[in-house]
Design a protein that fits this description.
It holds the Pfam family CMD. With 111 residues, the chain is an all-alpha fold. The longest helix is centred in the last third of the chain and has 16 residues. The chain is globular and about 40 Å long.
Length: 111
């Protein structure tokens, strides 16, 4: 089955927006999660680390909360996430690293 034909059943966009933003729901659920996240050349674990790095670098803490939890589901350990955020603090800015670490602490404590 090709990547374009896969359906993961992901409905996070639909659960968040319902019919309010049909285009965004479609591209989130069907394209991003059914196609991009299912491509074979990177594992979901690696995609999660890349996504955490990108969101941290951009200071997108609202989305980071979800993706830190998703990274944990995809096999990234808490220690690996802590180390990744420490490393990112030097490249993405100390405030972003500190904010991301606060988000991770909350994710772990509320799991």
């Amino acid at each position: 089955m090709s990547n374009e034909e896969r359906s993961t059943g992901w409905s996070g966009g639909k659960n968040t927006f319902g019919d309010f933003a049909a285009g965004l729901v479609h591209y989130t659920d069907r394209v991003l999660f059914d196609e991009v996240w299912e491509r074979d050349d990177l594992s979901k674990r690696d995609r999660s680390l890349i996504t955490v790095a990108a969101l941290t670098a951009m200071g997108k803490m609202d989305q980071l909360k979800f993706h830190l939890g998703f990274a944990r589901q995809n096999g990234v350990t808490d220690e690996e996430l802590k180390e990744a955020l420490l490393h990112l603090a030097f490249y993405a800015g100390w405030p972003n690293g500190m904010s991301a670490t606060t988000v991770l602490k909350n994710v772990i404590e509320n799991a």
